[in-house]
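Thread: "does anyone have the structure for this chain?"

Original post by V.I.:
We have the sequence but no experimental structure in hand. Need at least a predicted one for the grant figures.
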Amino acid sequence: MRNGRRRARGAIAVACGAVVLGTFGVPALWAGGAKWTAPPLAAARVNPLAVDAGLPGGRKLFGERCASCHGDAGQGTRMAPDLRERDVQDQSDGALFWKISQGNTRRGMPTYSYLPEPQRWQLVLTVRSLSSH
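Reply from O.Q.:
Generated one for you, tokens below.
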């Protein structure tokens, strides 16, 4: 009897989650809500790569890891924000590195901490190169 109740509760929880996602969609997970901010020490980190070093590799990584959600040119999609916008571009390199490393699964951003640090810094440079301002 107890197993049946647990299964029923689990099914209800899954159904409620599906209704929330179906009603609000994935963008609701990353749009709005509390502002996603890097801790001060992480935001203060400086990119050790030269400004133009690593862009070809970073662009390839961006195409493999980021473009499916953020768009080929970082223009954003219904799944992820526009990386060319001022609110992204005004963040420090350290903040972008932290966000790429940590991810934010509640907003649909996976963690890329498994990538070597130089590759994550290459992605920061690539995001910088997308600026529309």
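V.I.: this helps a lot. The radius of gyration is 18 Å.
O.Q.: and Residues 10-32 have pLDDT under 50 and may be disordered.
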